[in-house]
Amino acid sequence: QTFSDIERGWVQVNKEQLRQLKSLQEKDSKKEFIQLAQTLKYYGYLKFEPCITDFPEKGCQVIVSAGNNELNFQVKLPNEQMKEGSFKVTRMRCWRVTSSVSVRPLYAGCSR
């Protein structure tokens, strides 16, 4: 799962961390592997499907992820530049994501 998330770009890792993870996997060092993986940026976060926003500019693509008591966003600006931001979440018990446009179901059999 960790390597799959890294390949998808969901977890950020540098070359040295990737080398260490592969080495630990080859040695079957599960505890050390998990300890290292837990230090990686966005490890264990829930990542949502990309969406379009009108902030900071109309038509920007944004990816939202939640984990480790924070809500993160990565915005792709029209000039292809990426911007990141984070909001600490300490008192949220329940939350909801809504859409202002019609959304088709992601899975067969889903209804809205």
TrEMBL record:
Residues 44-100 form the Sorting nexin-17/31 FERM domain. One of its GO terms (cellular component) is early endosome. One of its GO terms (biological process) is endocytic recycling. Signal peptide: none annotated. Gene3D superfamilies: 1.20.80.60, Pleckstrin-homology domain (PH domain)/Phosphotyrosine-binding domain (PTB). Residues 1-41 form the Sortin nexin 17/31 FERM domain. PANTHER family: SORTING NEXIN 17 AND 27, SORTING NEXIN-17. This is Uncharacterized protein.
